[in-house]
Amino acid sequence: MKKRLVGWLCSALLIWAELLVGCGQGQPAAENLNQTIESIQESKVQEPEASIQESQDTRESTDAATSEETVDSETEEEISYDIIPETYAYSLTVSINPLVELYFDAENTVVGIAYLNQDAVDAYKEEEIVGNKLEEGMKLLMNATAEKGYIKEDATVVIELSKVSEDIQESFDTTILLEVSQTANEILEIVCTEREISLESSVEVAVNEKLEKETGIAAPVVCSDCNGTGNNCKECNGTTIVNCKACDNGIESCGVCKGTAIINCHGCKGAGGADCQHCDGSGRISCDACGGKGTFLCSWCKGELKHICPICWGEGSCPTCGGDGIL
Predict the structure, then answer these.
(1) Phi first, then psi: what are they for 282, rounded to 5°?
(2) Which residues, other chains included, contact 255 with Cβ-Cβ below 8 Å and sequence gap of 6+?
(3) Residues 208-215: what's their mean pLDDT?
């Protein structure tokens, strides 16, 4: 704008100068005046064009700056998914490929969450995990992971105890990791069955190396035979009952007479003779073990064909860990 004002002033002074000179020179001054007017008109045309171009350049520069600010603002918003609580009892890092840290209070309720990689953001940001109990939170986590295609046959699921509040470090009960392992394995089994995935490994639990060194908190050794459930006797699969292996139909042959119902006389040793009062000289008597029947009900199943599991003795628990789930 200032440039245009200066241009107009210069043009006006030039016209006055030409008029003054023209007074003494006549016609040439008029021609000079016409030339000057034409020059001014041309400058009027060129000047707005330059001004318009200048304005457009300014607007484009402003738009570009605004666009950069918007992108920066959106980038800042993308990292605002984490919910880090001021206080918590402990935290668990769940690694499948999405890597996420869950914060829990003393009641095992999820009170915070940190997304540790982009896969975690993609898989879990729409899930309302915070506010749920441990079991429900793990269920949401596993289902979301499966739906996003991260759980495959060769997938490895590791749950690590990452942080423990200082005021409970000495009394912290690591069996919570056993509960986590049991819950995660049960949920994972359901998820894989529904999606026909044959997962090659079970959930692993661990304690962060730095945390273990600083506090002495160590992860319990989870029984591999029952995956920490404690209730998976391999003989009866936890049912406490097995099919009888001692008989085929609930009846056993007498082991003394071999099913014949007859044995040698105890008195004459099977020699017989008129003098033997036990066998009347025949040398043979009814088997006193089976009552002369040759058979009797199976001593294991009593003819029921099933009996209490002899490995867990009806407990249904894993014999390797005694039902504790840990070694």
Answers:
(1) -80, -25
(2) 289
(3) 92
Pairing of strands 158-164, 204-207: parallel
Same domain, 110 and 204: yes
Task: Identify which of 213, 216, 155, 218 has the alpha carbon closest to the alpha carbon of residue 184.
Answer: 155
What pTM does this model have? 0.53
Q: How many CB atoms lie within 10 A of CB 180?
A: 23
Highest mean pLDDT among 22-26, 42-46, 216-220: 216-220
Contacts 24+ apart (CB under 8 A), 213-216: 215/164, 215/169, 215/172
Indicate the number of domains in the chain: 2
Q: Give a yes or no: residue 77 inside a domain.
A: no
Beta-carbon contacts of residue 287 (< 8 Å; ≥ 6 apart)? 254, 256, 257, 260, 261, 262, 263, 293, 294
103 and 31 share a domain?
no
Out of 181, 215, 249, a domain closes at 215
Residue 46 and residue 99 in one domain: no
